[in-house]
Amino acid sequence: MEKEYLNDLPSYTDAVRPWLDRRRKRRTCRLLAIAFLAYFAFSTYKIANNTRKLESTLSIEKLRQDHSVCAALRRVPVVSSAARDYNKRWINGTKPLLIRNATIWTGEPATGTSEEDARAGKGYSWISSDVFVDRGLIKKIGADISIKSLPDDTEVFEAHGRQLTAGIVDMHSHAGLGSVGNLQDDVNELSGDITPYVQSLDGLDPLQPEFQFIKSGGVTTSLILPGSGNNMGGEAFVVKFAVGKQNGRTEISQQDMIADPDRNWRYMKMACGENPKRVYGKVGERGPFSRLGESWEFRHALEQARDYVQSQNEWCAAADATGAENMATYLPQTLQWESLGAVLRGQVRLNTHCYTIPDLEAFVRHTNEFKFRLYAFHHAHQTYLVPEVLKRTWGGTPAVALFADNMYYKVEAYTASERAGKILYENGITPTYVSDNPVLNSQHVVFEAAKAYGYGLPYHAALAGVTSAPAELLGMGERIGKIVEGFDADIVVWDSDPLSVGATPVQVWIDGAASFKDPVELKKPIEPPIVLDQSLGKDTEKKEIKGNAIFTGISNKYLDGSIATYSSSNKAVAIITNGSISCIGPCTSELSTAQASNAPTFHLKNGYITPPFTAFGSSLGLVEIDAEGDTHDGPPPADGITRAVDGLSFGGKQLTTAYEHGVTNAITAPSSGSIDAKGISVGFKTGAKHSLEKGAVWEDEVALHYILTLTAKGGQTPSISSAISLLRAKLLDAVDDLAKNETSTTAKKDIYDEKSYLKRVASGSLPLVLTAHSVDTIASIISLKSEIEAAISTLTSSTASRLNIIILGGAESYLVAPELSAANIPIVLAPLLPHAQSWDQRRGLTGAPLTNGTAIDALVAAGVLVGIGVEELWETRDLGLLAGIAFKNSGGKLGFKESLDLVGGNFGKMLGLEKKDTIGREDSGKGQWVVWEGSPLEIGARVKALGGVGTAFVWD
Ligand SMILES: *[C@@H]1O[C@H](CO)[C@@H](O)[C@H](O)[C@H]1NC(C)=O
Ligand SMILES: *[C@@H]1O[C@H](CO)[C@@H](O)[C@H](O)[C@H]1NC(C)=O
Ligand SMILES: *[C@@H]1O[C@H](CO)[C@@H](O)[C@H](O)[C@H]1NC(C)=O
Ligand SMILES: *[C@@H]1O[C@H](CO)[C@@H](O)[C@H](O)[C@H]1NC(C)=O
User: Quick one: fold of 540-611+922-956?
Assistant: First the structure.
């Protein structure tokens, strides 16, 4: 049967005969030459050892098909700026749209601006204009576009002067590859280190709710990358976040999400450094075990792809010369090396996760050894140290995709700098800002750009870092990322300047279709764009203030019980004397005394004086590098209770950074790096040198902590119910112990026993902090509290009947806000804005325009005492900005002082620490002060000076 089939196929001689017949006599010499050439070509490629087949069994049809593949192999994508009549993603039926009276950031400098000026930010401005959109394209930008000139069915959106930008582009996201609640994970194909052949698209789930809430942050387009577990992770895809009829599409599909229906470019993800070593290295069995092995893996794969490309090129050249029919083999094709071959052919935009100099430099060598272009290094926390290395990359300098200030979490990120974006930009390298969703919630990727601006990257470059720069890097710079006629109509109208704290879209359009049917709009005044602060990039040095110092330009004072605003005509100064504030206000006589003593004077623009911030619930002081156990105190033991004070480490970058951002106090419980802590927390000063320094530890036993999140499940408590049962039993035992009213003192060590702490909890003298996210667990805690309090109230000896329970985490707490308020249980939100990172956080509110407010709004409205905690260490520095988000997006429900208290004063209230300075111990905040340049709740605020308790420092 097989033989019969083979005989049906045209033979090699059949295939060449007509050609031979016609030209036999006149072309003998040429035939010989071509035959020689063909023979030469055949013999040079690897599978050529079976070419001497005069009776060829190959299909002429397939050979011709193969030959047509050659054109595709040679195709080099170009970024087309040709005018389009319509956007290929446009759905016929989407109505034309006129956005009226917007303040537009086009993303382009004014015409005629030189390249040099544009780089410096000159020529960029916000313009007042209307925008007309039709067929998925921005058709017209101009002032006062007459509705009469537009199609009858045009819909009108009044922007009321609000800011309008292009849709945000996040070029590092894994959205849709893992499921909400972290139940499924299709991010990494961990079957092998070299998997360039897998495609992220195959795992993309269009139904994931995250597409909707990410888009509610203005993100319209993303590069969906495979993870970084493999040296070669696979192909990536650019998608737009419009899914199904609710978003103006006709279907729910992966294909419908592809941003470029023509698929002009392909994309790939690679990764260097710690991840692949950690995932694969096994001594004596498999690599890569070290960076040495990783480079071998890269080179070995690239070598095979290079040989593959060469064999194809030779086949195609021979087929061109002799005709496909005359080929003795088919075109070499194997899926394994197809995509990597396309990288070497320049058809793929490669993005590589690399942090450190050895990784960056090795990868730059690989690009030169194998001649392929890299478009961006991602994470890339050390790139700012080596711009010249990046410039040696083959094919052009890659861009860098960064977080603004998420750093120190692993050794590779321990040398990172908040100034990276600024430094790279000054060195001619493009910074972009990315989420690595779900590492950061992509919904807030614009906040990364905002912080980068705050750390000194020029405004236009920061905004470009989430719009036009990634668009260009994706090869779509002529279609998305700017508001330009002819571009895709991916548009965001914001409720405030996009690089200000809490900026939230009012509406988002993708290809001209509105994304939100009934968008929730936050109550905010309509304000012009922020005034650019040119001094943000200035480097400062920390110096001790000895004696007196004068700060001029104070505009606001928010110290305990003392709030004042000073106008520009009524300028205020602050005078520091021996670490303390001796006067704020006009201070006429104090000023002349200080000036007479030659006190240094520091001039501020818009100076604020506030109490310092407190980091609550983080592992600050117990963990330095999250991924490195040696830098931790270690996890709390399964049995018994330990005290964080016994494991505290001072110094280090985490504490220094917190301190320099005005977070001078921390309350930390034993944990190995999350809010899931168990044991006795300590209150301490982040700026202290060691625990014996005066006031360094201001409270060595703040509260008793237990875990009731998903991490509670394990060991002796396999379920949440068993964890709650155990806690109930312990607390009831404590009540019984109280009933026994043991006055005789037991052994000294028993004071540090779990039972002893629980007794203090039951007697109301020690707060109990429970980490919990699920509303059902929180409801159980509310019931447990009343049960225990009822038991306590039966004690005749009982003086206190209040069990002081505080919930840390609280993602779903808003669902029982009135009940929490009635039960007098405060909530410390950590994170402030949960986004379904785990199953027990899945009902977290992600905010406008998708949801009516977030958890904090409902809690505050119900009268619950709220704090903002720290979930991940790096966030400590952003406590002021987080309070700022709560403030700006509260619709006026939270005042400025109340917002500062979310990260300061409220912890004192919750924990009963307000009177600390009256009981002979160092204070937990009273007497301490921070002088800020700019509002501490806004982007760009800098700590200018801080002090209290005898010492003060200035950054100048
Ligand atoms: C859109 O659909 C309408 C109605 O089916 C049709 O008349 C029109 O030609 C279509 N427009 C385009 C540009 O395809
Ligand atoms: C644009 O909006 C602003 C703010 O609402 C308003 O003051 C102004 O009159 C509007 N301009 C036009 C042309 O409608
Ligand atoms: C418990 O002890 C306190 C003081 O030690 C005492 O005043 C009180 O009466 C005792 N209560 C009972 C029920 O024994
Ligand atoms: C949002 O919630 C607030 C109460 O927190 C309520 O007053 C308001 O009407 C709600 N808005 C919408 C659009 O549901």
Answer: Urease, subunit C; domain 1 (2.30.40)
